[in-house]
Amino acid sequence: MTLNPVTPEFVSQLRAQLPGPCFGEVTPGYLEEPRGRWRGQAGLLLRPGTTEEAATVVRMAHEARVPVVPYGGGTGLVGGQIATEGPAPVLLSLERMRAVRGIWPEENVMVAEAGAILSDIRDAASGVDRLFPLTIAAKGSAQIGGNLATNAGGLNVLRYGNARDLCLGIEAILPNGEIFHGLKRLRKDNSGYDLRNLLIGSEGSLGLITAAALKLFPKPSSEGTALMVVPSPEAALSLLALARDHLGEGISAFELMHRTGLEFLNETMPDVRLPFADLPDWFVLIDIGLARGLDPAGALEALFAEALDKGLASDGLIAQSDAQRQAFWAVRESIPEANRRIGSVSSHDISVPLSVVSDFIARGNEAIAALGPYRVNCFGHLGDGNLHYNVFAPMGEMRGAYVAQRDAVKRTVHDLVHQMGGSVSAEHGVGRLKVEDLERYGDPAKLSAMRAIKAALDPRGIMNPGVILRG
Amino acid sequence: MTLNPVTPEFVSQLRAQLPGPCFGEVTPGYLEEPRGRWRGQAGLLLRPGTTEEAATVVRMAHEARVPVVPYGGGTGLVGGQIATEGPAPVLLSLERMRAVRGIWPEENVMVAEAGAILSDIRDAASGVDRLFPLTIAAKGSAQIGGNLATNAGGLNVLRYGNARDLCLGIEAILPNGEIFHGLKRLRKDNSGYDLRNLLIGSEGSLGLITAAALKLFPKPSSEGTALMVVPSPEAALSLLALARDHLGEGISAFELMHRTGLEFLNETMPDVRLPFADLPDWFVLIDIGLARGLDPAGALEALFAEALDKGLASDGLIAQSDAQRQAFWAVRESIPEANRRIGSVSSHDISVPLSVVSDFIARGNEAIAALGPYRVNCFGHLGDGNLHYNVFAPMGEMRGAYVAQRDAVKRTVHDLVHQMGGSVSAEHGVGRLKVEDLERYGDPAKLSAMRAIKAALDPRGIMNPGVILRG
């Protein structure tokens, strides 16, 4: 399939159809991504202000066979927003479509445009005494459209699910420019194929999400947070089971962290106050939100007492104030930034079945040690079996010397994940970074079906070419 | 697309590839459906014992262009399992594939074959002290494969979601006979397009689900059930909001019922004991399951006291024993059977946004009254906005005289649902019954995309032709 670059003729055709504010300047930020691994290219930046304008862009790009790269908050970690190859594309930014179109607190539903910033959506929900639970480190700049396009995960998946689980309906532009009007505010709707879930997680390669009907939740009546030192990842899993036994669905987050993460914080972000005098090898952050009549601190104390008794925890801190809760969370939420400041040789966003998490960590560490004197910072969403298993150069050494081994490190980790029934793309998506991994580890029948679906919905291959599937 | 009938030559080709037990006799039951509206046809009944055998059937049918109709428990209400037109198909029954392949209680996961009966799956979960929450009236004969193919809803959707929300992965045969190995036991897996959710709800028209990895849940520590008389559907919705405020995610079911349902029970199933001396116009069944340390009866009493105070309930019964809980549930679960015994003129499985439920009922009743002296039994899963709005002949009259108006009744209800932003197919699916409705009310861009997907994955149109999309 031949794609065409943005030509002056194409631009003047667009100018005839779209109002002036749709045309923006491609400042450097649009061509960069958080890890600094790639630099993108763009023939034109378009910022539609309405769904109809977005549809016009896609329809005209379809007609002219010009590639379109959807651009949300630019926070993606797998290069889905960065076109490095092929003709310089139209960069289609949703930044002007950020309205909350409606909130129905009595239905627990909000309809928001794709360009709305995640934290603004959370605030809007909070304003009507509701919770929109999706939360990720990049929540201050990530847009909900991108969250849905990549099926973002984050910190509250254990209780509330991934982005796709939080979406009741979408409005989207299909690759031929048609508008899919699917913004129904329904909890049950079995009327044909699940186009919503097909577009969610397709990373802009099957269409452009322009708005979404989102699930809200009653705010828990009271919340609590604890840090508990655990003897091992295995004990952490048993502690999670015990916590579920105590608290049912009341557990909002259950995050595993390793001493390496604390060392990185010490090294790069000394302002983040560490809650432990002696750094523990492994510890968990437990966040709970309870219904009326329950006391979170009391519940966490009871849990800790039993965990101590059963040898599942050796030390624990229960937040006594909102400030303390925030301080505990600051540790967890600063670790990704500390990782970036140290600079990984290779980062891995993986998931494995819960019962092999502990074995995976042990075998992974052994395999990495066999490759060299690496430091591993393994942390993540334990309740989801989702670990960020990130590999760094030894303390005091520059990563430059080790980057040559990046592919070997990645292959070692990913082979092990695959062998243990896991996924090498848990919550960050495939983007352009993991296309080869998908080809290597993906199910062949699924890959054939995906290619057939891509060809059927986007026969000219204009939508985010090179993402998920080779262009 | 021309499809071929099952010929003696095709049968002998199959006999050469498949062991004897795969070949079954087409007894009348396979050609009937619960509402007795259609009678099906079958050229051959095949009952594969393994995934590979099922793949052989589909591959050979693909090669010979012979239609394949997947058959689960035969409990579907929209004719998805009944082929009335075209060449007599292969009926592909999963009845011999009913193994639970594995249970991982510590992961809250079970892998079961598609032919496993829903109640057997629930029992298997219960055997390891876990809950598989999907429950529908037909649970004793419905198979999990059919539940997934139709994205079944049922009584616990409010808390645990639809069938699709309870599935982590599937194994399936694609229309060309390839096996999609997607049985991963992962909570997070963003590795490509969501083929799982595309097949779930496609009612066998995009492939055949042969096994599924299912989510289990910790059993609530204690459970409770109440019936509360409400002044109106609107009050019932406010009561639900109040219940959520009291109990958070602890509410497992919230079912609205009308006096007509009780009258039907009186008339056709006098063994079902009615809990009210004076039949109320509207009442709800509330089922809760709580974590450790909470007392369900106490929680329901507190809820009732506040509801009474706020005018949201006028009478209430709180189950004091398991026998009473079962008696309350028997009322709700017997209503569909009572409806069948009375025999509806037209039944409607619809959903609307929660905030218009009450308005929908009022306007629907008015519109139906304008058509004739019908009785309406409106009941259902209020928390999901999912109502079964069923229309019956007047008391003492045979429905025969009214059946001629069936299309007008259906059209009246469905037009109103569509106008109010709802779905005319909430939890039962489209099947062959609602193909025209989908064409009338469906989003045109979605329908085009669905046809493109069908053509891409099943170019010969062999999989359940005529279901969802016109064959």
TrEMBL record, chains A, B:
Pfam families: FAD-oxidase_C, FAD_binding_4. The keyword Coiled coil does not apply. Keywords: FAD, Flavoprotein. Residues 38-219 form the FAD-binding PCMH-type domain. The keyword Isomerase does not apply. PROSITE patterns: FAD_PCMH. Belongs to the FAD-binding oxidoreductase/transferase type 4 family. This is FAD-binding oxidoreductase.
